[in-house]
Fold:
Amino acid sequence: MRVIVPFDVSTPKTSLADVLTPSEREAFARASLTDVLDALTTAGHEPTVLSTAPIDLDWPVHVDERALTPAVNARLATADGPIAIVMADLTLATAAAIKRLTAPDTDIVFAPGRGGGTNAIVVRHPEFRVDYHGVSIRDHREIAADLNASVTEVDSYRLSTDIDTPADLAEVLLHTDGTAATWLRDHGFAVRADGGATVVRS
Amino acid sequence: MRVIVPFDVSTPKTSLADVLTPSEREAFARASLTDVLDALTTAGHEPTVLSTAPIDLDWPVHVDERALTPAVNARLATADGPIAIVMADLTLATAAAIKRLTAPDTDIVFAPGRGGGTNAIVVRHPEFRVDYHGVSIRDHREIAADLNASVTEVDSYRLSTDIDTPADLAEVLLHTDGTAATWLRDHGFAVRADGGATVVRS
Structure:
């Protein structure tokens, strides 16, 4: 299946500005992207990165300077078969989770994100278009319903977890062992039991 | 399978104090508990509520005034077969998610919670004991490893989501239609698209 991984080169993870410098955020975002691409590749796909600017990667890169929604919709409009859109900050993604995403043969498959997002979508309906603004899972359900498209939602903690905030780093450290987790450990991050799971840096 | 649902009657959901009055928190906690018990019952189980004080419910109640960890471990010590412990605030639980929890036949099955918790556990090993203090998923993995117990972790967004904070209410409103979601809607709560998914009350 054709898989698109959108990636914003210009402002990686400003929501992590309290704990990471700009260059660290860039390195961490790259590490997360690598984890997602690794999971997709292990699951048997050949992902393409849909990037806002040229970047050097071991995977094919398609550059589109536009915002996320129009850039993805341009890919959907020219797709000649099933296509998946998987967010670049799903650092917890595994090949098993990706296989659960692509297994249902409905017109549309959603992996909802925590906080109303849509972290991954499989599109087998030629008219479906995305709208990532706002509470996108609600909007995407409506768009699919308007098309009378059949829909499955995949119940995955790993795919629901986009790494956005400093607290999210605990999820990476507790549940993954990939490039991003290694990067965090190499840069002094750890999870301390402190009432809950508190991320600390040494 | 024997299923235990621990429920703390005394201090329900103080973390929601900014948006719900004490009596509303109690009603919402009961509604969430009902959703969990409904999901377990639909999945074919006969859950028992392990409550800190007597409560009136349509399901059997076992009262144990002790804290969560010793109360659950007392049930594990007297179990004569497989036993599951499912948290009462997994408002998003469905029968399908519960079936994924009980399907693996390993000694232990974990459903990790966001933030380092362990939201559900299936125990088929006579010596396994819980420790919910701190980063419990990390501790539980170690306890299982020390016993050489076989372990599966279930990748479920629904089981990973315990409803703790005001922001979590968006998850209930966006992804469920049960007793708790109905209670929230009846009490004026809705999700507004406002950058993200913002919970508002009218």
Observations:
- The radius of gyration of chain B is 17 Å.
- The first helix of chain B runs from residue 22 to 42.
- The beta strands of chain B are 2-7, 48-51, 61-63, 83-86, 108-112, 118-123, 151-153, 189-194, 196-201.
